[in-house]
Amino acid sequence: MKNIINNRLFLLWSVSIMMVFSLIQCSPIQGLQKSYSSSYTAGNYAESLSAAEALLALQGKDGKEVPIETYLMAGKSAFQLKDSDKAMKYLGMAYSLGSYDNEMLSNLADLYKSEDNLSKEMRVLNDLMKSSDSEYAKSKLERYFLINIEAELYEKADSLWSKQSDSFRQSLEGLQGYLTLNNKLGKDKEAIVTAKKVIKLSPNDYDAKRTLALDAYNRAEDHYKRSMATYNRNKTRKNYATLLKQLKQSGKNYRYALGKLKSVYKVKKEKKIALYISNVYARLNNKNSAAYYRRLAK
Fold it and tell me: Are 161 and 178 within 8 A, CB to CB?
């Protein structure tokens, strides 16, 4: 009798388990999830988005809380379809609920970039870089370097330069960014070396030409001041003769710098450049031109 009872209990338990599995398999939620997974994997993003949105409606029925994963599913499908509005809506919701999915962060960064929303793009990239070893973080490392320059976070950008790929470090875009941060940080030697590399790739690059023009001016000034200081320390006939030779060289240096400065000023009428041009003319004893450019510098 006891065995019969046990057998009946086992049978009832087995039937119950089978019914549970049957219900799970027939669950609308389960069905939509499977539909999403198969269509997304097959690249049928329109179908996967429809499944995800149906799942959102079903899970959110009667004000219930929708799982973050469902927003991610809908957002990723919309992103693949280039539906920016829906991608932003769903991925943004997942992000606001606390998701730090790397693919989501990468997609959101692209969306914010397309909207020219620097602050939001920076925010999600900062979160993405917390997983610096992920493929998504690595794919955004160049952009992360450039956006820090845009945000005027030059020291942060400088710390990222060594992490860039060799190809980016030799590219025009990479070198232009590196030139900007070197100039802003007052790293003159690095700026000059970088400017020469930029000029080879883009002969008319304004920042590179400006950097090299100012370098030519500074070198001319240094040579002139050193020559005068040497003579003033010991005013002999021999040293005076040497000074005349040095001043002749200074004239060549200043004329070389003048050509570069005027070429830069022709592109953009900067007051600082006009002042340097005025100073050069003053060194060359051209009072009229010196006065003219000094007026332009005011």
Answer: yes
For residue range 272-292, what is the model confidence (pLDDT) as tens digits?
Answer: 999 999 999 999 999 999 999
The whole-model pTM stands at 0.84
pLDDT tens column, 141-169? 999 999 999 999 999 999 999 999 999 99
What is the structure's pLDDT at 61?
87
Residue whose entry in the numeric block shows the structure tokens 């993405």 = 128
